Amino acid sequence: MSLRVYNTLTRELETFQPLEDGKVRMYVCGPTVYNYIHIGNARVFVFFDVVRRYLQYKGFDVSYIQNFTDVDDKLIKRAQEENTTVPEMAERYIQAYFEDMDALGVKRADIHPQATEHIAEMQEGILRLIETGYAYEVDGDVYYRTRQKDDYGKLSHQSLEELKSGARVEVNDKKESSIDFALWKRAKPGEIAWDSPWGKGRPGWHIECSAMSRKYLGDTLDIHAGGMDLCFPHHENEIAQSEAWTEKPLARYWLHNGYVNMGNEKMSKSLGNIATVRDLRQNYEPRALRYFLLSAHYRNPIAFSHESIRQIESGLERLDTAVVNLRHRLKSVLDGEADPEVKKGLTALGQQLEAQMDEDLNAANAISVLHDWAGLANDILSRPTVSRGTLQALLEWVKEYGSDLLGLVNTAQDEDLDTAVEALIEERQQARAKRDFQRADTIRDQLQEMGIILEDTPQGVRWRRK
């Protein structure tokens, strides 16, 4: 089955076909680094991490770019409040971003370009837009002339008249039209600034992504993506300036994920109703946060609650326990080929999961297939005899889909920890055999402090992590 994705530009599900066979050029708008990211921001990065993984699973060579906005009004204001510099603040929150996303299992992009490192490329584009009449300079500011672009509004599906009626009217505005937007901003006293043909200043927000996506991926991308809040004005303005600059389509497919809501409101820093990833991962298993962000279809809103995270932790524990029990059983089974019926069942589960992902990247439904796998694994484990090949097939399946693709199931083995735990369990068994129950209890307490829970089964004692 072919992959189909919902294209915001056409408002239709379309069969995915990249410009170049076997290769995908993908750009995802990254954070403005003036604060810690919240769980709403993280939905973008977690979901499109899965999209990238799935495209790679499908055999595509993916070039994945995600930028950092490291200069804008918010950064300048925050740096002034904290009596630091914009570069120092940006670097602090870039590192914090990586720490948070590493914890959530988000793989780093091939390149993470920063706006301040691409001023020359932005100025090149602005000069071209001025030359072709798409931009104009006023007192050191440069604006994009939206009325020059006949199809402006095509991504957000709004006409110029609708956009003008909804635009904020500014006092003493130097712009020709209320919906013209800044490409270059004249520096105010004391602000960070760069030399330019229009005097000292800094770039507007939108031009950075046009310049960086073009530099690293070319004039036309296969996928441009981000949160729904970027559809207008950011992505709309990117389209306008990029297509006027290059005279080519900016992207074939535009993908946008829905909001994370806190109660009935969209979570946002401006509303002050945020839950930062940094705080949440101190209290919850980071994989549970990742699971939560994938637990609804990406285009739908999702409501955050602490109760939902706690329920998800229980679901993850079920998956992890199945993995641990399979590994434990492997130590006491005889060699043998995988059961053909089990292999057939695993193939069917893989096909089900792929079918869900092929239909507009439905990771939420794909997760449900992981739980079907756990049910199959538990059924196999309940059998008195089972072959090594069967257990290995079950583990290989969950590694491919649960770990490598969705990034949810912990299939990595800590050999040193496993060896230490097994040695303590063996010592406890010997203590019990000698009726040294005090020593046995001490070992159990020691294991609990290590986050290890013991369970007595017909096949012997097995253990799992909390």
UniProtKB/TrEMBL annotation:
All copies of domain Cysteinyl-tRNA synthetase class Ia DALR, residue ranges: 352-417
Enzyme Commission no: 6.1.1.16
Residues binding ATP, per UniProt: K269
InterPro entries (alphabetical): Cys-tRNA-ligase (IPR015803), Cys-tRNA-synt_Ia_DALR (IPR015273), Cys-tRNA/MSH_ligase (IPR024909), CysS_C (IPR056411), Rossmann-like_a/b/a_fold (IPR014729), tRNA-synt_1_cat_dom (IPR032678), tRNAsynth_Ia_anticodon-bd (IPR009080)
Keyword Glycosyltransferase listed: no
Pfam families: CysS_C, DALR_2, tRNA-synt_1e
Cofactors, names only: Zn(2+)
Protein's UniProt name: Cysteine--tRNA ligase
